[in-house]
Amino acid sequence: MNPVPRILAFDIFGTVVDWHGSIVREVSERHPQIDANAFALAWRAGYQPAMARVRSGELGWTRIDELHRLILDELLLRFGLDHLGEAQRQHLNHIWHRLDAWPDSVAGLTRLKSKHLICTLSNGNIGLLTDMAKRAGLPWDCILSAEVFRAYKPDPRTYLGVAQTFDAAPAEVMLVAAHQDDLAAARACGLMTAYIERPLEFGAGQPKDVSPDPANTLHARDLLHLADQLGC
Fold first, then answer.
1. 115: which DSSP letter?
2. Do 113 and 138 sit in the same domain of this protein?
3. Element (H, E) at 192
4. Which keywords accompany this UniProt record (predicted)?
5. 174-207: per-residue pLDDT in tens?
6. CA–CA gap between residue 219 and residue 176 (Å, rounded)
7. Calpha distance 81→88 (Å, rounded)
8. How far is C-alpha 182 from the chain's CA centre?
């Protein structure tokens, strides 16, 4: 019998919200002349290299909104959209604030909240996560972000910071994520881990391998299945 976590901390992009589908839908509508799938994938592909510049010290602490904008300005040139003005660029950059939740997310989180404290643990900044939660109806008890800890996952300060925030032992916290590398880093800090299958995170053209990793505490098809497993 697995111990029961007091706190569930959630990765957001890909785990709770569908970043790829949301970006493809909006970009297709606004800029039908470009390949929205390639645009979405390229924007996300710039995410880790941009954070690496912060981790290495090349950039000082920089919020994800600003990193997304650095990537976006390069993409607009690449995709022939460099004619867009500043207001249009700002609006497009804030697409990350408008991501749609996966169909199970709100109901699953609501059930999980009935027995656990639920919070975000995302590299997204606080304003982004708050706008997203308000729009999508995500019922967080608390919004925590890399911005709070001035460190991007997988820095241990993020995972241990959740425990410290709630005066909890790391073993009382479970990270819920659709990414095995995130979960492995959380386990190394003493957290429990739950893997959520999101086979279409990168779109139907690039299905993900969602095979179970026995190192995880739990493995769930979606957040409703996780709620079933935790008795919520």
1. T
2. yes
3. strand 192-196
4. Hydrolase
5. 999 999 999 999 999 999 999 999 999 999 999 9
6. 10
7. 10
8. 10
pLDDT for 20 beyond 90 = yes
Tokens representing 230 are 């935790």
Q: Which domain holds residue 31?
A: 19-97
CATH number of the domain residue 88 falls in:
1.10.150.240
Give me the number of domains the chain comprises: 2
pTM above 0.90, yes or no: yes
**193 φ, ψ (degrees, to nearest 5):** -140, 145
**60, exposed or middle or buried, with CB in 10 Å at 0-12, 13-18, 19+?**
exposed
C-alpha distances out from residue 181 to 11, 177, 186, Å:
12, 9, 9
Q: Are 196 and 178 in contact (CB under 8 A)?
A: yes
Strand partners for 9: 119, 175
Yes or no: say if 227 and 111 are a contact pair by the CB < 8 Å rule: yes
> Which two three-digit tokens encode residue 148?
């709070």
3 state DSSP class of 117: strand
Does residue 1 belong to any structural domain of this protein? no
**Calpha distance 112→5 (Å, rounded):** 11
SS3 95: helix
Residues 24 and 80 in one domain: yes
Q: Say yes or no: 142 and 195 in one domain.
A: yes
